[in-house]
Prior knowledge:
The chain folds into 2 domains: about 5-60 and about 70-125, Cobalt-precorrin-4 Transmethylase, domain 1; about 125-255, 2-Layer Sandwich (Methyltransferase, Cobalt-precorrin-4 Transmethylase, Domain 2), CATH 3.30.950.10. It is built from 9 helices and 10 strands. The chain has helices at about 25-30, 45-50, 70-85, 105-115, 125-135, 165, 190-200, 230-235, 250-255; strands at about 5-10, 35, 55, 90-95, 115-120, 145-150, 180-185, 205-210, 220-225, 240-245. The chain has a 5-stranded parallel beta sheet, with helices on both faces. A 5-stranded mixed beta sheet has the order 6-7-10-8-9, sandwiched between helices. It is elongated, with a radius of gyration of 20 Å.
Amino acid sequence: MKRNQGKVYLVGAGPGDPELLTLKAVRLLKTCDAVLYDSLVPMEALTLASQAEKIHVGKWRGRDGRSSVPAQQRRIETLMTELAGAGKTVVRLKGGDPVLFGRVGEEAEHLARHGIAFEIVPGVTSALAVPAYAGIPVTDRRYSSQLTVVTGHEKASGQGASDEDESRIDWEAISPKGTLIFLMCVGRLEKIKEKLLAGGWPPEMPACIIERGTTPFQKTVVGTLGDIAARARRGRIQSPAMLVVGKVVGLRKKLRWFAEASAESPMPEEEFNPCLGKSILSEPVPEIRS
């Protein structure tokens, strides 16, 4: 590491509720020089970094299928290198936990390759917290002793590639004896259902899809594996959302505790603020400088 060089912290911001930020994340946000933040981090987290430069680096996919991911990922890597190279302390703020489908391996490898010091700061993962807010423990000794978490977005292997060409998921290895969670999967519900049914999962297996979990806009639609895709369409479920499949979903009837939005509740107008109406901080979010 070069003398007077800065450092990058790859930090998990949790699933959406700002009160689920870790103490270390709060400390780093209060003392850093710059924050590179994704679209799904709570705006209250940015308020903590009142002294820092804030740069939004969220990714998007257009209706025509075009994705900003490759170009934006290169921009993120360049920004981390340049800011740390200028002696700044950088927080790379990611939703959930950075090591669970958060590209932290790619970004840490880039930093290591360029001699930039870094730390990985775990966060509360949505895979556990969101079902908990919906009244669903992902394991229960009566119903499930194993948990499988799968991404709804995989690295594409090229333009025009088929789902079979792109998929690295071992569908045959996913057992219906446990709990199955798919993250960021709204657009693939029918395909997921087809794959699981073909693999021997019963269509009557309890399932639910949870939108904007742990926030005041959380919405849960419950059904079975066979009908959850249709129910999600009727409920107008939008991304970000996760699918939970397994017998533990049935516990929601008794364990539901979090006040959720109704199906008719409007989504927030601010594209990158899923936590409106639940601020843990008194001061407003400062102007974002990019």
